[in-house]
Amino acid sequence: MNNILKQSQGQSLPIALSVPDRAWHTMTPNEVESHFGTDSSTGLDEATVLQRLAQFGPNRLAEAKQQTIWQVFLEEIREPLIVLLLGTGVLYAVWGNIGDALTIQCVILLLVVTVIGTFWIEIRKVIFWRGNPQQ
């Protein structure tokens, strides 16, 4: 289990960061510091920081993929309750009263439009706050 971490190209990393012999959450802070060659009071020196930055890249999470309005619409249409209501509307149109079928379909349309509208408002908020971070 003490393997050298590999880059995605399959090359060995310049810094040999091995996998610990036991789970990281069971290690003491001193053991973690020793394993990764750092000190919690001083941190990494600048040369090591630059080397690891070049090796691993910046410490950032990947951006989440944005959903389009159509993807949200299709996701909502596939919800079990919506599918049940759509099926009920079709059955009412075939065997029952067309007025009831249209009422059911209008309710479904209203539900889906409301969800999409809420999603759109939330997306606009995220875009606004990314452009105007709080002071």
Q: What is the averaged pLDDT score?
A: 77
Report the β-strand fraction as a percent range: under 5%
Largest sheet: none
Order of helices and strands: HHHHH
End-to-end Cα distance: 46 Å
Using only C-alpha atoms, the radius of gyration works out to 27 Å
Structural class: mainly alpha
Low-confidence stretches: 1-16
What's the domain count? 2
Number of helices: 5
Q: What is the 3D form?
A: elongated
Number of strands: 0
In helices, the fraction of residues equals 55-70%
List the helices and strands and how they pair.
Blueprint: H1 29-36, H2 46-56, H3 69-77, H4 80-95, H5 98-131
Helix pairs in contact: 3-5, 4-5
What does this structure look like?
This protein has helices at residues 29-36, 46-56, 69-77, 80-95, 98-131. By secondary structure, the protein is mainly α. It has two domains: 1-60, no CATH class; 69-131. The longest helix is centred in the C-terminal third of the chain and has 34 residues, at 98-131. The relative contact order is 0.07. Mean pLDDT is 77; it is low at 1-16.
